[in-house]
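FAQ: What does the model actually see?

It sees only this:
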Amino acid sequence: MKNISIKVATFFPEATKTFAELTSASEYKDSKILANGIRSVHTCDEGISSTALSVKAFEKLVERENIDADSIDCVAWISEGVDDYIYMDTAKTFVEDIKGIVDGEIHTYQLYGGAGGTIQTIQLISNQIIANPSINKAIIVTSLIWGAHSENRLLYPTYVGDGTGVIVLEKDTVPDMIQGIKVRTLEAYNTPYAIPYGGTRHPITQEVIQQNAFKVETITKEHQNGILDTIIQEASLMINELCEENKFDIHTLDYIGISGFHQDYTVELLKMLPAKKLIDPLSEKGYLGSLGVFEILHQFLNTSKIREGSKMLVINLGLEGNLEGMLIHKPISL
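And it is asked to produce this:
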């Protein structure tokens, strides 16, 4: 990704719930859930909006990087659920909430890629910066508050945590930070669920309803338990293609960042990769959806103990059936 720099900040509310608290509030306690590797998640106070939460991450970024808010030309908001105002553009709501952004000519995007689209969003907005002369500095935002969008924070077989993140992409003279991006989809393996009937497995007839056969799950427990091998197989192909296309020697990696939803997948991924230091927010923050990549980049780029020039492979596993990979290096200060 030619001459695009990345700056990032994340914010997590102070309140947390332990794994014991999460499982005690749920009727589901099967072995898959109990072995997901999560120790705690962060939780928001009731009543806070997703845009109000995202402003906190933006303020951290402005303070750390000395960013002029009025220099931002583009805002892209990644959504995973119902945002502040139904049928409205949350990106524009965010613009209204940020002090210093002039409500004038600014590009806004509302993207619904969710967890399986974060790296693709980075690619999309980076391409906009390269190709569109009216965009020099863009931000990508995601803000997740799961209390209203899940049952006791359970999205089988994982638990979701609240938080927010902001990425700034900018034209720069630094050598390419993003050295390659690759995406694979698992759509071909997904069980179709009678799309004309809103995601159900059966036509909505009186007989189906009487038999209690009307189902609204997008992924069943049986389906989830059977896709580990497929995900690992496809991830292996994606990583090989990513390295080959970018002439990258995987043995020169310093870090591996994995944004996932269950430790079984992380363990299997690490078996096929060279032994490197791992950045994995799952255990302390739970499944972060679209925010997972933000947090991995934050830890990699903003942790002083990680030396400049280090290289990382980021792997993003989304519940909805996409795999994403990105090669990135930490720039050397001039």
